[in-house]
Amino acid sequence: MEVPISHFSEHPDYLLTMTQATKVLGYKDYRMVKNLVDQNLLVPLQVPGSKRLRFRYHDVMNLAKPRK
After folding, report:
1. Sign of the torsion angle spanned by Cα atoms 36, 42, 43, 44
2. pLDDT tens profile 31-52
3. What's phi and psi for 6, nearest 5 deg?
4. Best CA proximity match to 15, nearest among 64, 48, 53
């Protein structure tokens, strides 16, 4: 019995850490995500009281491409 997989846009738009965004995109090094930020392909969010960047789940998933 197959369980249907829902599209990511049907999930809540969580805030991801740099490490989480790196893993979702399939990279081994966070610097690749930093490059995406530097190229304005991914917009980071600054959470008040924290120095760490966060990323919207839907923004990260819109960049993800399936493997061929």
Report:
1. negative
2. 999 999 999 999 999 989 998 9
3. -80, 155
4. 53
